[in-house]
Amino acid sequence: MSRNECNRRGEMSSSEERCAERDDSEIIEGLQEENEMLRRELESLREAEARARADYQNLQKRNARRLASVREEIRGEIVCEFLTVIDDLRMVLASTRDRGNDPIRQGVEMILGRIESILSNMGITQITCEGEAFDPNLHEAIDYVPTENAADGTVIEEVLTGYCMEDRLLRPARVRVARGYSEEAARGCQCNDDTREER
């Protein structure tokens, strides 16, 4: 082999080396870009997974609240059915006041006491009425009675007991409410009566 041929081969191998170096740097650069793209995609998937996990947890909490609300609603409806039984037992007791030690009366008192105890354990309370100011959120006025013995707007008689279950009203108390008595109001009633009679 001549010297010229050897030099040409040496030149070719150095240009090949330069090409190989250029190819390697392009490959490395391409791999780095692909690596960065994959890293961003992975980060995006992690964020999406975190959002999906948070949405799922929120859905579970919302469903748990909804289920608790439905349970309370059903519990309230069932209790309302028993309130009529309590009303009936109270009417029995009211109609047998004069019987004193009657065993049937004592049995009714015992049953009523047990039912009220069960309701109390369930968080169900009676609404206090007599002597309290009329509250339309808790009371249902069935009559307004003119009187000088109580302040205007005061509950003077409970006709039917009302009940609450924790913060929820199950049944309003039916009450009679004091209406301030005045001679003008009484005359107004008489005038209205006279006017009606004239018609």
Structural notes for this entry:
- The chain is an alpha+beta fold.
- It has a domain at 125-199: Nucleotide Exchange Factor Grpe, Chain A, domain 2.
- It contains 3 helices and 6 strands; from the N terminus they run H-H-E-E-E-E-E-E-H.
- The protein has helices at residues 3-95, 103-121, 183-198; strands at 124-126, 139-147, 155-160, 163-165, 168-171, 173-180.
- The strands form 2 sheets. A 3-stranded antiparallel beta sheet has the order 1-4-5. Strands 2-6-3 form a 3-stranded mixed beta sheet, with no helix packed on it.
- A hairpin with a 2-residue loop joins strand 4 (163-165) and strand 5 (168-171).
- It is elongated.
Overview in brief:
The protein has 3 helices and 6 strands; from the N terminus they run H-H-E-E-E-E-E-E-H.
